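Hexosyltransferase
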Amino acid sequence: MKVKVRHIVLNLLWVSVFSPIFIYTYMVGTFFDPSFSRLDFLDDVAAFTLSGDTSHLHVVPLETSTALKKPVGVVYSDHSANSFPSEVTEHKSTRVLSAASEERQPLLNNPITQAISLEEQHTLPPGKIEQKEQSVNKSYEMTEAADVQVHRIKDLLIRAKVYISLPAIKSNSRLTRELRLQIKELSRAIGDAAKDTDLPKSAFEKLKAMEQSLEKGKQIQDNCGASIKRLRAMLHSTEDQLRVHKKKTTFLAQLTAKTLPKGLHCLPLRLTTEYYTLDSSQQNFLDEDKLEDPRLYHYALFSDNILAAAVVVNSTISHVKHPSKHVFHIVTDRLNYAAMRMWFLCNSPGKVTIQVQNIEEFTWLNSSYSPVLKQLGSPSIRDYYFRAHRSNSVSNLKYQNPKYLSILNHLRFYLPEIFPKLNKVLFLDDDVVVQKDLSDLWSLDLKANVNGAVETCGESFHRFDRYLNFSHPLISKNFDPHACGWAYGMNIFDLAEWRRQNITEVYHRWQKLNHGRQLWKLGTLPPGLITFWKRIHPLNRSWHVLGLGYNPNVNQREIERAAVIHYNGNLKPWLEIGIPKYRNYWAKYVDYDSVYLRDCNINP
């Protein structure tokens, strides 16, 4: 009987005392296990979602939060995911994943953290892990990623933005201002760079300055690691997906910008047909004696877009006080010459004098005289813009825009040759709208400068180092990388001063030096910055407001006050992709009642 009672007591003691102790000990051991905490953290990150419905922000459906990729390395930036005391004595192998520590900061995207998986670290002995890390590290150093510095800068920007949102940093106004300034400068330096080679030299100096500022913030705020880890995990996990969406958007925008709408293709065909039905006496404009009168107001407009040219002329003459004193010189190509003449013959702009010229008639403009014409016609240039293995690269779509191979785009460098008897000419792009009388520009004193233009030193624009290759000694020795750029589109040129300073020869000399495209890549603004270096007279910004062809946030008050608004960018107002809220500024100068527009189905 006593034996049975003893067994019963022992069983009860086991159930009520020893079993709970055993179960509790097992749970605590599992909870403090490093591998468990890491896997739990990764699951937490993968399940992280933003509050609210963000589907309306994306054209292409995004992956669900459960499909997010596991962040590579940067999740464990400063310490492990958990903050328990056992982390201090964690196995040596866990240090392999610490990709953002002080000593390993430059290797945020080091493939070591990809090559040595979490499972391998818990199955291999410590010695093997170190050997594997060393071998992978050597191969990484031999094939260093081309974008490691770009990713490093992006990571620093993320950290800085998080730092300035923390209460301890906010209370330090001096450090907050310093971080905001560093963010602005570093963001401007990185721009759209995708590779380290795209970064300007100044980016590395700004990178070091940012690291010093972050170090100050780290001393103030030591417990912000968890917030940074979580934000890095979220941002880096979606980076690839965002890059794909950006490439798709860029491709479609570039494709649409280069595509001529059906109506604008129909219009010149219709006008050309009508032009050749006219008698020779009906094909001439009136007041040809005014074309070379230097006392009048002369405008230069080079375009192959009939509707755009019509808007420039209509918007200009609607604001002038004395239309009979204004002369428009329009130069177009051979294909659109008859159509352009027919349009202005049928839509005579009152007392304003119109001249339409064919660029083919400029016999002096040939490859023996113009270096750029020789270069544009060379097989190497055409291969550079259009060769097959570049055609799939979204970043190079801009190189394939036909305007870069059009001599019309470069005709602005030959104004004295086109207008030999004029002293001043106002140059207008065909994507501008004039909103005020521009007559005062002719009486403006340019102070011995050649080009009166609006400078573009604002945050949305770039300085010289964004257009020219300052790694080349010819550029670095002659120009200031921080000098203000300026805008083409509305420029008053002093042709007398141009001739005196022999500006055309300056342009030719630099074009010859850039034969291998080592000084700048493409376009007319880079050679313009060089040619008119220290020959620019800055105009008040209200004369010329830019950005309506790409920026939906141009200040409304600036638009209303501007003398000229410029649709520079891909979102032209005559395209369906044009920004809707800006389209009416342009459309109100189009005569949609014209029979030719109705025949070609061009509607508001």
